TrEMBL record, chain A:
NCBIfam families: phosphate_pstC. Residues 72-299 form the ABC transmembrane type-1 domain. GO terms for molecular function: phosphate transmembrane transporter activity. This is Phosphate transport system permease protein. The keyword Transport applies. It is a multi-pass membrane protein. It is found in: Cell membrane. Keywords: Cell membrane, Membrane, Phosphate transport, Transmembrane, Transmembrane helix, Transport. GO terms for cellular component: plasma membrane.
UniProtKB/TrEMBL annotation, chain B:
It comes from Cryobacterium ruanii. The gene is pstA. The lineage of its organism: Bacteria, Bacillati, Actinomycetota, Actinomycetes, Micrococcales. It comes from the Bacteria. Gene3D superfamilies: MetI-like (1.10.3720.10). The chain crosses the membrane at residues 24-44, 50-72, 84-106, 144-166, 178-203, 209-228, 260-281, 331-356. It is found in: Cell membrane. Part of the binding-protein-dependent transport system for phosphate; probably responsible for the translocation of the substrate across the membrane. This is Phosphate transport system permease protein PstA. One of its GO terms (cellular component) is plasma membrane.
């Protein structure tokens, strides 16, 4: 905006201007360079893993793809479970803050939810083992007793409660704030005239939300969920601490054998890894990076395309 | 949606076909009372040991949802009933989200205080400590150094990049930077740690490299996008009239930015930086990868392993020694320290934003 007028009269270029503007350009480009560097260095360091000797893998896995396969499954399984739990609650919270809570309280309540995002993940891990797992274990026993015929709930039940289901609950709590924050922003952008028109036609508050707010916010909800998915895919410490892991494809939610995730597997094994083992872990990290990058890019693209059409801007 | 034409005959009062005021509140209290009575009966009959407070709240809330829906449906019709049910569910969703927050803070304080209050906790390291005793001095020093250097790297880059986006950037490069900054906020923290490891392992040709500065680099990767995003928002808030007034007086553009734009938005920028520090100070995974862990003091960022507070919490829990309870206690005390630091940073940032923000309303 400020440079638009400079097309006709060219301002004198002072040395200060040149230095300052090129410094900002360099800083901006550096960010792109860093992102590229993350991809390049990870790729270079993980190349040995793709051609590694079968003996380098423990257990009966013989190549990288059979090593990473169950990890990818576990990562996606846990993240999807977390998402299923988090999205309805997050939409509820966002609606509560944007349309139900008293106006004066709304911002304070928003901060309260943001505080949840400030809790370090290692504390979530401690809480997951120390509080949540013992709390939910009796429910797991009941679930297995009653619904054991349904494969995901099949036994034998874990005695500690440190299952993938508990992990999913912790992950759901961790991704709540980001989904809530974005949904809240989008819901507040709903054109006021749409809302007032609905109310004027005699709609109740819920009907107004269903007819005006939710259709308007749907792309926002989708991309917020995808950003939450990205977070859940990459979350490390909470999974590493809570889960009792095994590197297999396991659909059961409540047993003591659980598919572990890429990030947790790296965190648990990296300190002791050596030789090509390090490269294998870096290669699994590269997989994680690619997946989360794609998910995030898609989510941001949806948000950005929406921004252009929203009546609020 | 149901048809709106089937109007019920109205009695001549404005409140006809409505539940009395505050009926929702009374129904809620009644449902909780019924549920409490149910669990009290179970307790007194000896079926379960102890009064189940959680069960009371859950059952009471479910009962409320059912009761208010049925009542409202009978008196007010299905549309209003749906509205009341949804209000109840949405409010419940909010309360559900608060439960973990309260539970986390409560358990951390209760479990963390015993070790937190021991005299050596803030004055000694874990060197040669087996069992109880020792402290987190080495971890706190490490955290402050690693995060401090990460801040020194991230703030200039992030601030300059946001100035570019707001003041200079037009066209493709600016759009690419905006997009990828958003994407970068979603990079998993462990990937940042792996990146720093891969970078320095190649650079120094040392496949087992661990040192504090690598941790700073990893944290910077996570921190820069957050700084850019928040500073950009703040710079955009500076009114264009201020810039134009400076240009009209013949001030060069770079001086306008330095002397007019930045001072106007500095409070918001400081807030953003503090929030971004609060975000990375609790990161565990990248530091576990590249900074490693140790039980001794290390003041040198460029050599040897360096302990940090989040990694301290993790290792105390993961590698419990002979006297397991002492290690768990220290883990919780470390977690408490971490939460206190993060909450202080958050609170301070909000206060700065509140005190120094330009008052827009007249």
């Amino acid at each position: 905006m400020t440079t638009a007028a400079a097309t006709t009269i060219k301002a004198r270029q002072r040395p200060g201007d040149r230095i300052f503007s090129s410094a900002t350009v360099i800083a901006g480009s550096l960010i792109l360079a860093v992102l590229a560097a993350v991809a390049i260095f990870l790729l270079v360091e993980s190349l040995p893993a793709f051609v590694a000797d079968p003996a380098a893998f423990d257990g009966d896995t013989t190549n990288f793809w059979s090593y990473v396969g169950p990890l990818v499954f576990g990562t996606i399984y846990a993240a999807i479970l977390a998402l299923i739990m988090a999205v309805p609650v997050a939409i509820g919270i966002a609606l509560f803050i944007s349309h139900f809570a008293p106006r004066k309280l709304a911002q304070g309540l928003g901060y309260l939810i943001d505080l949840l995002a400030a809790v370090p993940s290692v504390v979530f891990g401690l809480w997951g083992i120390g509080v949540l797992a013992p709390l939910v274990q009796p429910f797991y026993t009941t679930l297995v007793d009653w619904f054991g015929w349904f494969t995901p709930f099949a036994g034998p039940v874990s005695g500690t409660g440190r299952t993938i289901f508990t992990v999913a609950i912790v992950l759901a709590v961790m991704i709540l704030p980001i989904i809530t924050a974005i949904c809240r922003e989008i819901f507040l952008q709903t054109p006021l005239l749409h809302e007032e028109a609905a109310l004027a036609l005699g709609a109740t508050r819920w009907e107004m939300i269903r007819m005006a707010v939710l259709p308007f916010g749907l792309p926002g909800i989708i991309s917020a969920s995808m950003l939450g998915l990205g977070r859940a895919l990459g979350e490390t410490m909470a999974v590493a601490m809570v889960l009792s892991p095994s590197r297999e494809v396991i659909f059961q939610l409540l047993t003591s054998q659980n598919s572990t995730t890429i990030a947790a597997n790296i965190a648990l094994n990296f300190p002791e890894a050596h030789g090509v083992g390090v490269n294998i872990l870096l290669a699994t990290g590269l997989m994680l990076f690619v997946v989360t990058l794609l998910v995030n890019m898609l989510a941001r693209a949806i948000i950005n395309s929406r921004k252009a059409f929203s009546g609020a801007n | 949606m149901t048809s709106v034409t089937e109007a019920t005959p109205l009695t001549n009062s404005l409140t006809a076909g409505k539940l009395p005021r505050r009926s929702a509140l009374w129904v809620l209290l009644a449902s909780w009372a019924v549920s409490a009575a149910f669990f009290a009966m179970l307790y007194l009959s000896g079926t379960v040991d102890g009064f189940n407070l959680v069960g009371t709240a859950v059952l009471g809330t479910v009962l409320y949802c059912v009761a208010i829906y049925v009542l409202s449906r009978l008196v007010e019709g299905s549309r209003k009933a749906m509205d009341r049910l949804m209000t109840a569910l949405v409010t419940t969703a909010f309360v559900i989200a608060l439960l973990p927050l309260i539970s986390i803070i409560y358990t951390t304080v209760v479990n963390g205080l015993p070790a937190f209050l021991t005299p050596t906790f803030f004055t000694s390291s874990q060197r040669n400590v087996v069992g109880a005793g020792g402290g987190v001095l080495h971890a706190i020093t490490g955290t402050l150094m690693v995060t401090g250097v990460a801040t020194l790297i991230s703030v200039p880059i992030g601030l300059l990049a946001s100035i570019y986006l707001v003041e200079y950037g037009r066209g493709r490069l600016a759009r690419a930077i905006t997009f990828f900054v958003d994407v970068m906020t979603g990079i998993p923290s462990i990937v940042a740690g792996l990146f720093a490891f891969a970078l320095f392992a190649l650079l120094f040709n040392d496949p087992g490299i661990r040192f504090g500065f690598g941790g700073s680099i990893a944290l910077s990767v996570l921190m820069i996008p957050v700084v850019v995003r928040s500073s950009e928002e703040m710079l955009k808030l500076v009114p264009n009239e201020l810039r134009e007034a400076a240009f009209a007086l013949g001030v060069p553009k770079w001086l306008t930015i330095l002397k007019v734009v930045l001072p106007t938005s500095i409070a918001g920028i400081v807030t953003g930086v503090m929030l971004s520090i609060a975000r990375v100070i609790g990161e565990t995974a990248p530091l576990l990868i590249i900074a490693g862990f140790t039980s001794s003091m290390n003041y040198d960022l460029f050599s040897e392993r360096m302990m940090t507070l989040p990694v301290f919490v993790y290792t105390q829990y993961a590698n419990q020694g002979a006297d397991a309870q002492a290690y768990v206690d220290r883990a919780w005390a470390g977690a408490l320290t971490l939460i206190v630091i993060v909450m202080l940073l958050n609170g301070l940032a909000r206060l700065i934003a509140y005190w120094f923000s330009p008052k827009l309303g007249r």
